[in-house]
Amino acid sequence: MADSAPASFLTRANAILRKNLTYQKRNIWSNVRLIMIPFYLCICLLCIQALFDSQVNNSVDNQCGCKCIDKTGEGKCEMVCGVQYSSRDQGVFCAFPKPQPWPPLILIPHPQARAADASFTDDDSCRRKNICPVTILLTGNNHSLGATLSNNLLKRSFTMDSSDLFSGVADNLLATTYKGSATNYLDAGIVSDLTMYNIQPRCPPNSNFTFSVGQAPLNFTKEMRCVQGLNLWRNSSREVNHEIFKGYQQGNSDGKISEIVAAYDLLDTDRSNFNVNIWYNATYKGEAENRGNKRNIKLVRVPPLVNLVSNAYLQYLQGAGTKMLFEFVKEMPKQETKLRLDIASLIGSVFFTWVILLLLPVILTSLVYEKQHRLRVIMKMHGLGDGPYWMITYAYFLAISTLYIICLMIFGSAIGLKFFRLNDLSFQFVFYFLYINLQISIAFLVSSAFSKVETASVVAYVYVFGSGLLSLYLFHYRIEDLSFSRGWIFVLELFPGFSLYRGLYELAQYAYEGNLIGKDGMKWKDFSDNAMDEVFYIIIVEWFVALIATYYINKISSSGKHPLFFLKKQKPFKKSPYPQSTSMHRRVSTVSVEMEKLDVIQESEKVKQLMVEPSISHAIVCDHLKKVYPGRDGNPPKKAVRGLSLGVTSSECFGMLGPNGAGKTSFINMMTGLVKPTSGTAFVQGLDICKDMDRIYTSMGVCPQHDLLWETLTGREHLLFYGRLRNLKGSYLNQAVEESLKSVNLLYGGVADKPAGKYSGGMKRRLSVAISLIGSPKVVYMDEPSTGLDPASRMNLWTVIKKAKKHSAIILTTHSMEEAEFLCDRLGIFVNGRLQCIGNPKELKRRYGGSYVLTMTTSSEHENDVEMLVQDVSPNAKKIYHIAGTQKFEIPKEEVRISEVFQAVEKAKRNFKVFAWGLADTTLEDVFIKVAKTAPAFNVFS
Question: Which residues cross the membrane (predicted)?
Answer without folding.
Answer: 32-52, 343-369, 389-417, 429-450, 456-475, 487-505, 535-553
